[in-house]
């Protein structure tokens, strides 16, 4: 190596300035910590990150930071995205990495999803693809469990839910029974003192802290429910709340089964707790257990606790995929795989604004958020759309294959390529209410136990649903 390069190499020390094209981009202490973590992760995958390779990691990291800054991403999301891009820049170098990076960034700009970036990087070597997937999984785990990211996930037991500090009584030591064990509390009385002694201006009463009773016994729709803690049997309380909501929405009157409502609401509450739902005012439920000749789609007004009425109806028609039902009326087969022309079940989130395409005046994209159940929806093109097919006119039918007129002509609804097709006359209203980050749940009763949704889904945790409603005084384990 020539002498001319030595001064530059010396600058690649901790907290230094990268001397490449972007001389003004400094590496902070946080950046160095992230670099060391990435070096360790790369080392575990067989890459020797030492000496010159450590310097190249500097360059890769700064390039990744520049890409993320250009996208305008901030917070924990930017940390995870920076790590992913750093790995690709480092492994491939500038020329080979650039097209791959552009492809990944293009995927992100379309959907703002780390899952989408991972899905658009299938040609990476297995080790690198596994590393990017690991970064994505760590980020999602941190977000779902309310941990700060980046944080070593191994430091926290799997399934732990960290509750905001304001929900936890301000008492040093563990509050157990009527005693404050172990240590003095702010210079006050020690272990074994009776209730009624002051602790930071509040009273200790068993497991309750005076002044927090109102918070701990939240009023939900006029009823008092305790926040979650060990020993609370959540199922009967959660069932009682769901039964009350089922009646308030008058769902039975408009054809929705209680099991469909229950499964959908638990999924919705899990997604709320995991912060996966952007807008919470409307929630669509589709029940593919019902035949297509029944009105089997509902939009719930979550703020006013009522079903949305459109064109005089509170329940609406919805078509399923052409290969989802063998007899064209009953849904029996679902898939997460492309080119199957089958519908998928589970919880989905709408993406962006409606758009027109071909014969369809209104189409709305959805992202399935349940791995192995519907997470390929976006790439498969599974949408909410108006049920229109002009080619049906040539065969003597109405082109609106989701309509009562088509049912009278054929004895059933038409079928889609896997999309949720709704009546053209209500599509505009549906789109306006469901666009841009609202939740959609597709239910199937699964009488033969083929899909086992409730056991496979990560959005059917009753404890998490309970915490979303009534809070928790402690961390869930």
Topology overview:
Elements: H1 6-10, H2 29-44, H3 52-71, H4 76-111, H5 114-119, H6 126-144, E1 175-176, E2 179-180, E3 198-199, E4 202-205, E5 208-209, H7 213-216, E6 218-220, E7 223-225, H8 234-248, H9 258-273, E8 282-287, E9 297-301, E10 306-307, E11 318-319, E12 346-357, E13 360-368, H10 377-380, E14 383-386, H11 404-410, E15 420-422, H12 427-434, E16 439-443, H13 453-456, H14 462-470
Helix pairs in contact: 3-4, 4-6, 8-9, 9-14
Polypeptide structure, described:
- It is a single chain.
- Helix 3 crosses helix 4 (76-111).
- The longest helix has 36 residues, at 76-111.
- The protein has helices spanning 6-10, 29-44, 52-71, 76-111, 114-119, 126-144, 213-216, 234-248, 258-273, 377-380, 404-410, 427-434, 453-456, 462-470; strands at 175-176, 179-180, 198-199, 202-205, 208-209, 218-220, 223-225, 282-287, 297-301, 306-307, 318-319, 346-357, 360-368, 383-386, 420-422, 439-443.
- Helices cover 35% and strands 14% of the residues.
- The chain contains 14 helices and 16 strands.
What key attributes describe this structure?
alpha+beta, disordered N terminus, 477 residues, 35% helix, single chain, 14% strand, 2 domains, globular, 14 helices, L,D-transpeptidase catalytic domain-like, 3-stranded antiparallel beta sheet
Order of helices and strands: HHHHHHEEEEEHEEHHEEEEEEHEHEHEHH
CATH homologous superfamily caption of the largest domain: L,D-transpeptidase catalytic domain-like
CATH hierarchy: architecture of the largest domain? Beta Barrel
Low-confidence stretches: 1-24, 151-223
Arithmetic mean of pLDDT: 75
Shape by Cα distribution: globular
State the domain count: 2
Oligomeric state? single chain
Number of DSSP strand runs: 16
């Amino acid at each position: 190596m020539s002498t001319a390069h030595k001064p530059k190499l010396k600058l690649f020390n901790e907290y230094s300035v990268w001397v490449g094209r972007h001389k003004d981009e400094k590496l902070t202490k946080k950046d160095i910590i992230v670099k060391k973590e990435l070096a360790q992760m790369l080392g575990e995958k067989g890459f020797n990150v030492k000496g010159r390779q450590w310097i190249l990691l500097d360059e890769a990291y700064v390039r990744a930071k520049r890409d993320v800054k250009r996208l305008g991403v901030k917070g924990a999301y930017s940390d995870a995205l920076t790590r992913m891009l750093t790995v690709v820049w480092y492994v491939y170098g500038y020329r080979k990495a650039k097209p791959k990076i552009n492809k990944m960034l293009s995927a992100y700009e379309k959907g703002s999803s780390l899952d989408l970036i991972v899905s658009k990087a299938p040609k990476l070597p297995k080790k690198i693809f596994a590393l990017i997937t690991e970064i994505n999984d760590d980020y999602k785990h941190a977000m779902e469990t309310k941990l700060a990211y980046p944080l070593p996930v191994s430091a926290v037991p799997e399934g732990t839910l960290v509750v905001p500090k304001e929900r936890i009584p301000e008492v040093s030591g563990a509050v157990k029974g009527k005693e404050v064990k172990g240590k003095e509390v702010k210079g006050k009385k020690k272990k074994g003192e009776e209730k009624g002694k002051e602790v930071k201006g509040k009273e200790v009463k068993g497991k309750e802290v005076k002044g927090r009773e109102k918070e701990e016994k939240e009023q939900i729709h006029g009823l008092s429910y305790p926040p979650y803690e060990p020993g609370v049997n959540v199922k009967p309380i959660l069932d009682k709340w769901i039964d009350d909501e089922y009646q308030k929405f008058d769902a039975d009157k408009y054809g929705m089964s209680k099991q469909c409502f229950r499964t959908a609401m638990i999924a919705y509450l899990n997604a709320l707790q995991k912060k996966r739902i952007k807008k919470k005012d409307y929630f669509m439920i589709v029940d593919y257990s019902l035949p297509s000749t029944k009105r089997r789609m509902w939009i719930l007004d979550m703020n006013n606790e009522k079903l949305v009425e459109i064109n005089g109806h509170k329940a609406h028609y919805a078509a399923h995929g052409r290969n989802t039902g063998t007899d064209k009326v009953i849904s029996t087969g679902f898939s997460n795989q492309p080119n199957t022309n089958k519908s998928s079940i589970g919880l989905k989130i709408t993406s962006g604004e409606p758009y027109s395409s071909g014969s369809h005046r209104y189409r709305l994209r959805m992202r399935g958020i349940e791995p192995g159940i519907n997470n390929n929806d976006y790439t498969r093109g599974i949408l909410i759309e108006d049920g229109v097919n002009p080619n049906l006119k040539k065969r003597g039918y109405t082109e609106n294959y989701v309509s009562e007129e088509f049912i009278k002509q054929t004895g059933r609804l038409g079928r889609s390529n896997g999309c949720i097709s709704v009546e053209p006359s209500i599509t505009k209203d549906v789109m306006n209410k469901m666009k841009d980050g609202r939740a959609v749940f597709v239910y199937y009763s699964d009488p033969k136990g083929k899909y086992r949704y409730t056991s496979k889904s990560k959005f059917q945790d009753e404890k998490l649903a309970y915490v979303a409603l009534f809070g928790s005084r402690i961390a869930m384990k």
